[in-house]
Design goal:
The protein contains three helices and six strands; from the N terminus they run H-H-E-E-H-E-E-E-E. It is of the alpha+beta class. The strands form two sheets. It has a four-stranded antiparallel sheet, covered by helices on one side. A two-stranded antiparallel sheet has the order 3-4.
Length: 167
């Protein structure tokens, strides 16, 4: 019994240490921490990591020249359907800096039941390439200052075909 309590306390201690270390490196769940193995080294923030504005902070929606119709046009004219039985959602999340430049792209995908799923690279590489090619992102203004911000796009795939772009 005493050994079980000690083991439980050690496990709890190590979990608390891990949580503390995680909290030191992120401010919000899903912050995009820089990764030199994934990120373009030329992409620079205008402000500090902890000052990146979350997309839920201003209520202004997508800040892209031409708005949502322009985003749809870019994706639907560049994506080539992959003949494969894969369906679900692929979220592309990234940072837009105060100059409208993008970086730190990350993908998260799920099947149609919102369970984690890994799509074929024929699909994900296309969506990532298209996202990275978009160069008309507009800077956000927060309290009279241009800021860095998170942006996301969710692509709905139905049997390898791109059917919707959200938001």
């Amino acid at each position: 019994m005493k050994t079980t309590k000690i083991f439980f306390l050690l496990l709890l201690f190590f979990n608390l240490v891990s949580l503390y270390q995680f909290a030191q490196n992120t401010r919000w769940i899903d912050d995009i921490v820089p990764d030199t193995t994934l990120d373009d080294s030329t992409f620079k923030l205008c402000n500090a990591n902890e000052q990146i504005i979350q997309y839920f902070n201003d209520g202004k929606g997508v800040q892209y020249k031409g708005g949502k119709p322009a985003i749809d046009s870019i994706f639907f004219s560049n994506y080539r359907t992959v003949k494969i039985n894969e369906s679900g959602l692929i979220r592309i999340r990234f940072v837009v800096n105060c100059s409208g430049e993008t970086g730190r792209f990350r993908l998260l995908s799920s099947d149609i039941n919102y369970q984690p799923k890994e799509f074929t690279s024929e699909i994900t590489n296309q969506l990532l390439r298209i996202s990275k090619s978009m160069n008309n992102w507009q800077p956000k203004i927060w309290k009279d200052t241009k800021v860095d911000y998170y942006q996301y796009l969710i692509c709905k795939i139905d049997n390898g075909e791109l059917t919707h772009i959200l938001p």
